[in-house]
From TrEMBL:
Protein name from the UniProt record: Probable beta-glucosidase G
Organism: Syncephalastrum racemosum
Cellular component GO terms, alphabetical: extracellular region
Annotated ranges, domain Fibronectin type III-like: 615-684
Example GO molecular function: beta-glucosidase activity
Lineage: Eukaryota, Fungi, Fungi incertae sedis, Mucoromycota, Mucoromycotina
Listed EC numbers: 3.2.1.21
Location of the protein in the cell: Secreted
Length: 695
């Protein structure tokens, strides 16, 4: 490896903003006691107002509950997963898929706390995030909002995010419940999924969020096995509120309420944005006619009020100030945004150790591609970021937010190169720009793939002839480095071109996009990002694709993502959990003990390179044949920073949650007796050590 000096991930973490003070969170029992006392004094009009929205565009926020007699305040509900939507003086954070690529629970929780702080101080009671839909079909338009293809990783990221948001007294909303995995015909298609797959794949993140004290769930647009998700008795009442013990409330996605009594009795507690014709006066009539019991209406209200009390929102909560630029809530969150973007960057290849850039050796670099520069009319020119212009830092739709500024890769590289006496040539266009690559020591080509709500991607090809741009640059420069901004997998037909020496996936990194990638390219941060999804050699290799069919059978069942590739023995281009570093790691001394249905494992990891770095140590589990599970599933991970030449012991504990499968007939989680195998590795396909044990 190159003898370089790096700002290691451990040091980079010290550059985060100051830790947030956390609110005192009440227990559910205490909160319900307070709620019951208040709700007992409410009229039916008060109760109906609390569960009904005022209507779209008729309040300060994207969602607003109605006014009561004064016994309870109106609640403000606002998107979204990357920041406060339609607000001034707020931040734009890295997307969910990008954040998941850090595989770093602490960083993910820091992001959640930062989000919570900004929502709270803008007067928002309910943050409409995180999005926790599993990445099933890689073309799906909202994959960028979620945390990837694996239920366990998704669950850990969800838990950290919910804890972070709610640590600031803001109610987090996990969405979209459930089986919502594409945009095409999203209001009409039916997800046809069996109960075991539902529990082990799509509901897993919700279970973990509930354990973390989740306040709200948003039911989705689609149907589930033929029934509207917002009026599905099995998933809402039986599963979510019954088996999973959810004590918060269920709101509809916007305009996803389809009935009054059917929805309410199935488990829907709130209609958003309201004026659907199903809540409000219709709900009041349904109660008076006996179609909805008074007890059920009381339950709906108590769930909302209890969550409000649980997070202490009755005391000194700020007023709504979304459009007030003078209420600046950004703090120093740009440090965290920059650090997360750098930590999420996945180094996919690095031939001849071309990266990081070594000052003195490199005299000139070229920066090429529209994705390297800024949008002609600024980063907020398109409503809900529904267009792809300039560097791609966030996806489109309700999950986007308003940029206070956007650092482009070209600007950041130029600033960093100036300090290193490196000349930079910039051509921030995809047309007639490849010639700029000639003569440069390294040619950086920036490309992207846009994704947004309401639309699915027509293919996994890069946008704006990105593949052709890469090929043209590689013809001009045999030290070409490709940087991809996308919300999921992309096709890479050029990957074997010998002139392409390095490839990096950078996701959608938010407002500090340029600084995050420059930190990695110049070695200020040693890359430690790992893929939260699989990248296939061929687009036809994935387990599912977007379809216009009215019924979508989930025939792959448990084999989503990397599980599908392993079950069918398909070799991916880059496997789930994969990512390189500027150093190397060696695994040894795996020890596994099992006792009383608990498993403990330890492994020694050594940094055998010449620079400090961080490794993501991953635990996969193979179940006994009788369990009929995928070949192996992720059941643990830890990010560890290790100095050059040093080693550390990494510990893991697996309990009932990690060792169980869902038994549909018993409607319970079950540990199957038999021989298991625990695998330790650097990705789903790079297993370093394995040990069998019996339960």
């Amino acid at each position: 490896m190159k003898p370089i000096v790096l700002l290691t991930p451990a040091i980079a973490l010290l550059q985060l903003s100051a830790a947030k003070e956390t609110i005192h969170e009440r227990s559910w029992d205490e909160a319900y006691g307070m709620a019951q006392s208040l709700v007992a004094n409410m009229t039916i009009n008060d109760k109906v107002a609390i569960v009904s929205g005022v209507g779209f565009g008729l309040g300060h926020c994207i969602g607003n509950t109605r006014k009561t007699s004064g016994i309870f305040p109106q609640l403000c509900l606002q998107d979204g997963p990357v920041g406060v939507r339609d607000a001034k003086s707020t931040s734009v954070f890295p997307a969910g898929i990008t954040t998941a690529a850090t595989w770093d629970r602490d960083l993910i929780q820091t992001r959640g706390a930062d989000l919570g702080y900004e929502f709270r101080h803008k007067g928002v009671h309910v943050a409409l995030g995180p999005s926790i839909d599993i990445l099933r079909a890689p073309q799906a338009g909202r994959n960028w909002e979620g945390f990837g293809e694996d239920p366990y990783l998704n669950g850990e990221a969800t838990t950290a995010t919910v804890r972070g948001i709610q640590s600031q007294g803001v109610i987090a909303t996990a969405k979209h419940f459930t089986g919502y995995n594409q945009e095409t015909n999203r209001n009409t298609y039916s997800t046809e999924v069996d109960d075991r797959t539902l529990h082990e794949v799509y509901l897993w993140p919700y279970a973990r969020a509930i354990e973390a004290g989740l306040g709200a769930v948003m039911c989705s647009y689609n149907n589930i096995n033929g029934t509207h998700a917002c009026q599905d008795e099995h998933t809402l009442n039986t599963t979510l509120k019954g088996e999973m013990g959810f004590r918060g409330w269920v709101m509809s996605d916007w305009f996803a309420t389809h009935s009054t009594a059917d929805g309410v009795n199935a488990g829907q507690d709130m209609d958003m944005p309201g004026r659907s014709g199903h809540f409000g006066s219709s709900l009041k009539r349904a109660v008076k006619k006996g179609k909805v019991t008074p007890e059920r209406l009381t339950d709906m209200v108590e769930r909302i009020v209890a969550t409000y009390y649980k997070l202490g929102q009755e005391k000194d909560y700020p007023a709504v100030s979304l459009g007030d630029a003078d209420v600046d809530v950004q703090e120093n969150h740009k440090k965290d945004i920059r650090a997360i973007g750098a930590a999420a960057t996945v180094l996919l290849s690095n031939k001849d150790d071309i990266l990081p850039i070594v000052p003195g050796k490199i005299k000139q670099v070229a920066v090429i591609g529209e994705d390297a520069g800024g949008a002609i009319f600024g980063p907020n020119a398109c409503i809900l970021h529904s267009c792809n212009s300039g560097t791609l830092a966030v996806g489109g739709g309700s999950g986007s937010a308003t940029f206070p500024y956007l650092v482009t890769p070209a600007d950041a590289i130029q600033a960093r190169a100036k300090n290193a006496s490196i000349d930079v040539k910039v051509a921030d266009s995809n047309i007639f720009s490849a010639s700029k690559a000639e003569g440069a020591d390294i040619a950086f080509v920036f490309v992207n793939a846009f994704a947004q709500e309401s639309f699915d991607r027509s293919s996994l090809d890069l946008d704006k002839n990105g593949n052709k741009l890469i090929e043209n640059v590689a013809k001009k420069n045999n030290n070409t480095v490709v940087v991809i901004h996308s919300g999921g997998p992309v096709n890479m037909p050029w990957i074997d071109n010998p002139s392409i020496k390095a490839v990096l996936w950078a996701g959608y990194p938010g407002q500090e996009t340029g600084n995050s990638i420059a930190d990695v390219l110049f070695g200020d941060v040693n890359p430690s990002g790992r893929l939260p999804f699989t990248i296939a050699k061929h687009e036809t290799d994935y387990c599912a694709k977007v379809t216009s069919d009215s019924k979508i059978p989930y025939t792959e069942k448990l084999n989503v993502g990397y599980r599908w590739f392993e079950a069918l023995n398909i070799k991916p281009l880059f496997p789930f959990g994969y990512g390189l570093s500027y150093t190397d790691f060696k695994y040894s001394h795996l020890e596994v003990t099992s006792k009383n249905k608990q498993v403990q494992a330890s492994v020694r990891v050594e940094n055998t390179g010449e620079v400090d770095g961080a490794e993501i140590v991953q635990v996969y589990l193979s179940f006994p044949d009788a369990a009929h599970e995928p070949p192996k599933v992720l059941r643990g991970f830890e990010k560890v920073t290790i100095k050059a030449g040093k080693s550390t012991s990494v510990q893991f504990k697996l309990g009932k949650t990690e060792l169980s499968i869902w038994e549909p007939k018993a409607r319970d989680w079950k540990i199957v007796s038999g021989m298991y195998k625990l695998h330790i590795g650097a990705s789903s396909a790079d297993i370093r050590l394995s040990v069998e044990f019996e339960l």
